[in-house]
Design the sequence.
């Protein structure tokens, strides 16, 4: 009876996965084998391995790497300071609040800040530096992307730091370890799972950005997400758009599998 009840509880989850995860992936894979005229073909997959799309893939991974790296560099010390402050719940709420705001509204807010007559250029002009072209640059794209994704990096790192036993840090100090050595040999290895979770939470969605590339980067940055949007909404070449999406899904799955394998390896190392 308990086994039957457990199986009944699993039905909604299985249906959800089948309808909203497996079925859409199969549908995308199906469309990837058809061209604009609706004819079955492998031409889309051959076209993906041309220099144009390969450069686009490398560009997507590069920008996703930069966004993840800068997010981590900002999020780790921020999460560490949060564990040392009072009213942690309030500070966490203030960090999470921006993620509740619509992405489009945040993008337009940065257009106003970084524009030629925006707040940032006004400050630069007052200080004597002069107006600069901030909007529609790689800097603005990475900056806005980091701002958007940083809560997803802070939370897992903060949880990992909170779970860490503080007596281990005291023990390292008693043994004569410097602050940097304590961080490198004790703190960071013990919070690596949170770092990896945060990196995956940022890197994977950063691979498929498209709205920010248009509004903030002004199409100077072309990613796989931008190409998918272009093929589905502009050129109406659903087959090519689906093909790019298939490779994007495969890349994300490989990254998740590699992260899982490394996680188990690190746990084994710590146990040794």
Sequence:
């Amino acid at each position: 009876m308990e086994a039957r009840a457990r199986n009944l509880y699993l039905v909604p989850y299985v249906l959800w996965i089948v309808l909203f995860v497996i079925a859409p992936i199969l549908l995308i894979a199906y469309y990837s084998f058809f061209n604009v005229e609706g004819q079955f073909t492998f031409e889309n997959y051959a076209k993906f391995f041309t220099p144009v799309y390969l450069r686009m893939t490398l560009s997507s991974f590069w920008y996703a790497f930069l966004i993840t790296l800068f997010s981590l560099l900002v999020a780790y010390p921020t999460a560490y300071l949060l564990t040392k402050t009072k009213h942690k719940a309030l500070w966490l709420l203030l960090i999470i609040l921006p993620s509740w705001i619509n992405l489009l509204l945040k993008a337009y807010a940065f257009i106003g800040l970084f524009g030629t007559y925006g707040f940032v250029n006004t400050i630069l002009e007052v200080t004597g530096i002069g107006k600069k072209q901030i909007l529609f640059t790689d800097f603005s794209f990475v900056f806005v992307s980091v701002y958007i994704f940083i809560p997803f990096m802070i939370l897992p790192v903060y949880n990992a730091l909170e779970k860490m036993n503080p007596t281990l840090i005291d023990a390292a100090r008693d043994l004569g370890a410097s602050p940097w050595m304590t961080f490198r040999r004790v703190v960071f290895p013990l919070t690596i799972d949170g770092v990896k979770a945060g990196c995956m939470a940022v890197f994977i969605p950063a691979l498929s950005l498209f709205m920010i590339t248009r509004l903030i980067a002004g199409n100077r940055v072309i990613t796989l997400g931008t190409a998918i949007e272009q093929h589905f909404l502009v050129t109406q070449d659903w087959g090519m758009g689906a093909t790019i999406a298939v490779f994007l899904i495969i890349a994300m799955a490989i990254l998740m599998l590699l992260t899982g394998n490394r996680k188990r390896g690190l746990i084994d190392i710590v146990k040794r």
Notes: The chain has 13 helices and no strands. The CA atoms of residues 45 and 243 lie 6 Å apart. Residues 261-272 have pLDDT under 50 and may be disordered. The domain at 32-101+138-271 is CATH 1.10.3720.10 (MetI-like fold).
